[in-house]
């Protein structure tokens, strides 16, 4: 069994996975990318580069939110949305790596451990079926790609956990898997704009930002997936710019219907900060949401394509958004939790990390993520 595990290829992980949805790098602006993300129901989309028409990156709603909140874009959001999508792409090099279907599975894990967030495997549809292929294009039909994540590899290893029985029951603390979370945590009374560098780090680490009380107790989290579930993207950017972390969690948790006191706070702060254009777009977006909410129809309309403020009913049955949790309910474990238990818990809740808290006081101790779990498992297979 160990020999089989070592000799498997990435194509084995592609079986049954859907084709990656993509955007062309040069033909799409930020606003169009935002609409595409909304309509797809996916947490992120691949970006096709101009060279060789290969997947060169990825973009999420959280990336666009961070972009709108930075570099003076709050003052001119309409202009920011009209810039090429490349302006909002993450700057890290190598976060998306292409591999051929025959690429070794353990070598693929090594790419993950070297910093790759996603691996892209070329595929091709043939006569109603999907076939793993080497190369792009050729022989009939546009090229398609399969998207492999850290979760795919952790799930694969968990299915072979018997091979790791000597460490599976050990605690994450004894295995050295608990990382400090100081670079991923914010006090509940801090301004939302303090969140931006932490969100950038969370996107890079495929984690979230912990919100803690003054005494260090974990009170919630703000995750990229929760941001992606908010269809009011411009209003969310304004909320980050005007609310505290605690109020921002409340805004996200109301799932498209924020209480009037938060709306008033956002609008008043935008006026005080001299951001009339953002204020106007926020009012348009909230008005559009109010109109669509009162409509008896639950189908999407062309207004989504005509206005960035268009609001459709929340996609509760989406495959990717069904796993989004409320910000005040982060998934946690304890230093004494076993490796296998942590793997199973994270996979069951479709997250790539768990917050590690003190069992008695719920104080935040650190974070454990898929990358470090994979590193420990990979080390067991070294010669």
UniProtKB/TrEMBL annotation:
Task: Mark out the compositionally biased spans (Low complexity).
Answer: 289-302
* Start and end residues of each CBS domain: 324-383
A Pfam family for this UniProt protein?
CBS
> What Gene Ontology cellular-component terms does the record carry?
cytoplasm; nucleus
InterPro entries from the UniProt entry = AMPK_gamma/SDS23_families, CBS_dom
Q: Which UniProt keywords apply?
A: CBS domain, Repeat
Region: Disordered; residue ranges are 289-331
In its keyword annotation, does this UniProt entry include Transcription regulation?
no
Q: What is this protein called?
A: CBS domain-containing protein
**What organism, scientifically named, is this protein from?**
Zingiber officinale
